[in-house]
Amino acid sequence: MALAERPYYRQGCNLSQSETVTEGEQVKTMPEERETEDSPISEADQILLREREKQRERELMERVEVLHKEVFPSGRPRPSQLYPDHALPLLDKNSSRPSNRKHTVQNVSLAANLMEALDRTAAASSPSVCVTELGCGRANLSAAVGHHMMHRDALRLTASGSPPAPTPVDPSVSTEEGGRGHAFVLIDRMRVRRVADRRCGFIANPERIHADIADVDMSLVQSVSERPHLLGVAKHLCGCATDIGLRMLLGSDRIRALAVAPCCHHRCQVNGYLGKGWLEQQGMGGDDLPRLFRIAQWQSMLLHPSASDPEVRRKGEAGRQVKDLLDHARCMHIRTLPGLSCELVDFVTEDDLSLERRCILAWREEE
């Protein structure tokens, strides 16, 4: 069946009304970049304009530093690198190569943070939850979530006095909540090999959707509609995909908790960025926002061989602070939505694990 014929396909349903820039398109911010063939700018004027732009950047970085100290008095979002004892076998199994260990620590910690957010909701002990991973790739993150959920279900059954039920849970079996057993929905535009679907814990064949997250209506996905509770998770959604993914998940009345780790803030789009309103309230509107997107990529300088140079280090720290604020602004937007709470945490705390360590945690308060 063609993608357009799938019941959940609605082109652009998760885009904001003003979002018209194609993914990956860079917003031009410097005046000389806006010139047309009819109004060319001389080389001398270009030099002058670049100097003015650098001055505006320096002024913006000063304001960023002040605001960052107000929002993050300790200098960073709350550290929340979690690695429960029951997940240690996963680390032992994937410690042969440093890259494997790095991704395993990231996946386990992000999944554990999702479980902590779930614990704050009315769905904490539900036997009927649908987990949706955005930009899933091989779905190793979903496999980590499945590992955590198997452990939680075993504890729940033991605490209730019932003998531990063998997992996976049969997704066709109805539960006392009127839904079905746990399910996983894995969404990605790309088709990949060596997938981890069968390690998601509860079902042998999760529902895989090969589509852009901008075009998937969650209310029309069968595995979601059959269950009363929805969890969302994603690791390193690039640029505007984070805003599209958050809009997609938060648009569902079944969402109970989510853990989304953004990255590549320089690829965000002004029109679709969810934190725009809060930043404007802090006096960072107009051309400041695309400048912030551009400065965000300076964070990578922290890992550059010349990072010991004070100027390079300063710019790298400025990029880190901008990323913190861009994601905090997204959290502030989520807090304006009815019944939702949100927090920004560092789901890993070591640079060698990832510079993109921020996680947006959101959950629906118990009613």
UniProtKB/TrEMBL annotation:
InterPro entries: Methyltransferase_TRM13 (IPR007871), Trm13 (IPR039044). The keyword Lyase does not apply. The keyword Cytoplasm does not apply. Its EC number is 2.1.1.225. GO terms for biological process: tRNA methylation. It comes from the Eukaryota. It catalyses: cytidine(4) in tRNA(Gly)(GCC) + S-adenosyl-L-methionine = 2'-O-methylcytidine(4) in tRNA(Gly)(GCC) + S-adenosyl-L-homocysteine + H(+); adenosine(4) in tRNA(His) + S-adenosyl-L-methionine = 2'-O-methyladenosine(4) in tRNA(His) + S-adenosyl-L-homocysteine + H(+); cytidine(4) in tRNA(Pro) + S-adenosyl-L-methionine = 2'-O-methylcytidine(4) in tRNA(Pro) + S-adenosyl-L-homocysteine + H(+). Signal peptide: none annotated. Residues 106-362 form the Methyltransferase TRM13 domain. It is an enzyme of class 2 (transferase). This is tRNA:m(4)X modification enzyme TRM13. It comes from Kipferlia bialata.
